[in-house]
Write a structure and sequence with these properties.
This protein has 121 residues and is an all-alpha fold. It has one domain. The chain contains 5 helices and no strands. The longest helix is centred in the middle third of the chain and has 35 residues.
């Protein structure tokens, strides 16, 4: 299970690098998620990540980091479902209006989380 968590950390690093180099991709993804009820997929993905992180935490080197991230994924999944498409739309609009510098700063955070996950697993 630690291998799966490390693999997810690598995915986070690649996503962070991709958005750092091409911030317009992140904006297009937000536009895609605004349509219909696609935002619920994000909520499901966050719940799936939470389950993986919480179940695999005991096999990791720094367990508390993985547990905290799992809890944050549960909270973010709940918030995503509570907001729903109608209230999440303006948030996604806000993100799309941000400058490339802001998107790159968010990408650096994603990249850092990925490195922390890899190190902790």
């Amino acid at each position: 299970m630690a291998f799966i968590i490390q693999s997810l950390g690598i995915v986070f690093v690649f996503v962070g690098i991709l958005h750092l180099l091409k911030p317009d991709i992140a904006k297009r993804i937000m536009g895609f998620l605004k349509k219909g009820k696609r935002i619920y997929f994000v909520g499901l993905l966050r719940f799936a990540l939470a389950v993986i992180f919480l179940l695999g935490a005991r096999e990791c080197d720094i367990k508390w980091v993985i547990v905290v991230l799992g809890i944050l994924f549960i909270i973010s999944g709940l918030i995503t479902f509570m907001l729903g498409p109608r209230r999440a739309g303006p948030i996604l609009d806000w993100f799309q209006r941000q400058s490339n510098i802001v998107v790159r700063l968010i990408a650096v955070i994603i990249l850092a989380v990925g490195v922390i996950v890899i190190y902790s697993a």
